[in-house]
Predict the 3D structure of the following.
Amino acid sequence: MNSVPEDMAPPTPAVDTNGSQAPAEPSEGALWRRLTKTNTAWIFLVLILLVAFFSILKPNNFPTEFNARAIATNAAVLLIIAVGETFVIITGGIDLSVGYVLLFSGVTAAQAMNAFGNPTDRGWDLILLGLLVALVSGLAWGTINGVLVTKAKVPPLIVTLGTLGMAWGMAQILSNGQDIRYIPSLLASVVGAGRFFAIPWLVVIAALVAAAGTIVLRMTRFGRYTFGVGSNEEAARRAGINVDRHLIKVYALSGLLAGFGGFLALAYFTTTTISGHANDNLNAIAAVVIGGTSLTGGIGTVVGTTIGVFIPAILASGFIIIGLQSFWQNVAVGAVLIAAVFVDQLRRRSPER
Amino acid sequence: MAEPLLQARGIVKHYGHVEALRGADFDVFPGEIVALIGDNGAGKSTLVKILSGTEQADEGEIILDGHDIQVSSPLEAQRLGIETVYQDLALAPDLDGAANLYFGREIVRRGPLGRLGFLDDDAMHAGARKAFAELGVDLQNARSPVANLSGGQRQSVAVARSVAWANKVIFLDEPTAALGVVQTGRVLDVIRRIRDRGIPVVLISHNMPQVLQVADRIEVLRLGRRVAQFDASAATMEKLVAAMTGGLDGQGSAA
Ligand SMILES: Nc1ncnc2c1ncn2[C@@H]1O[C@H](COP(=O)(O)OP(=O)(O)O)[C@@H](O)[C@H]1O
Ligand SMILES: [Mg+2]
């Protein structure tokens, strides 16, 4: 996690002599070159090609407003947990637990809303209570992850693998393995299925979370420390940054967003869908990595993650529309993930900067 | 000579069974470049880490401006005006030069946004441009991650960072070890400029000619102890090597 290997890459031509070679001012061409050297640009191209591919194959079914809305809605919850995962991976860590923290938070929120009898006809006060319970549940798991990673010094892969299992087990213990099927209908109709003009509320909310994530990452000290800690943890320590405290905050944020995602999933599916979250972890991590965030830390964008979330979503929709079994989606996402990392490494290994 | 600005007395440091320092002394006087030399494993880096708060001594005392001090953390050292450029460069390679210069001490915007932690990148870039220019460091692309810079430029960023914040003393641990001739010359120029601004510089090196070239005074560490002190004018290659290797135990001009 500490020293980034490309730091050791073959030295670039001595600076002292490069006045004649490189134009100092970035021209438009240079900007384009820089863009194409980011994974984000390539993966965006892949996204467009996928859309074009399915649109040409099924011009009447794929490129429709209905389908666009369905894809975006399906991607919305995943995007929210992937934003938290982006922060974690930029610090050089990983959070495998998000999918089941999401499930756990959905279960506790549903139980809280059912604690006073059938909640179907209840109003916003009960919905807010449910939201609060979901957020606190997620935050708690995230904080546990952060404390174990920093204070107990257990590797994040293991800590979050452990809490993944614990959150899943606890969710089933709390619910007796039975889905809770009653939520306030207001929650389902407004948040789960409602629209803001033509755009589903879920998509609006996810877009706001992603925008906030980008702003925090790019423009605040919290974001700067996230990159800095992931880039060189020891340098951050020596710069007087409280690395442990920052990492705890980052894992807590990831948990908080998973809790929020759990609440939104509850609104969307109107049930806790206990067996429905097996792929959330893989998809969230895949989205982040496909989007160009480096698993070694220090590099990443929320914009990339957003594109990365849409690739599985479009594959899923496209495969169903062209009549392939939906299982092919998992195969394709896995392949895209490996390809994305492979291309990224090729790009970084090239000596030309 | 004047009173030392910084004194280390009887510093002892164990790593398990290894005795890295066995009662080491060290002095820094105002306005000088003092070289700390010694063979590999003599304890130079360890002494610097203790004086800059990244390691804690098992025994011994540190005196700054006549006062006993505890350098319990890097943050504490920074507060005291002690800055260090570590042998294993402590830069964040994915951040740009300005972000590294201000790492841990970011400038935030005025007003409510600042209280939320929003950064004032323009101010930091302006400050960085000025700091680099003052040291004669020429960064072609100040917005590029420092991973993309050459070794010399990276070293310059690290040095500029410490210069920007130090007001008592700067430690440079082997700052030219990885550099070519031209870049080494530049870093040495920078070191002289810092000294000329009145801030003493401690240069850790085992490059004898370089030490003789820039240092005003030389202290020699061997097996975790100070074994000799020289005025640079009185030092020769032979004397330094003899002190480093033990051929001169107890005969240093002031040890
Ligand atoms: N973190 C550490 N753990 C164990 N031994 C160490 C550690 N740091 C330094 N040492 C040992 O302490 C001695 C002094 O090392 P160091 O201060 O790096 O010497 P120098 O910088 O003069 O080459 C060496 O024997 C080294 O192996
Ligand atoms: Mg050393």
Q: What stands out?
A: The beta strands of chain A are 195-196, 199-200. The first strand of chain A starts at residue 195 and ends at 196. Chain A is about 70% helix and 0% strand.
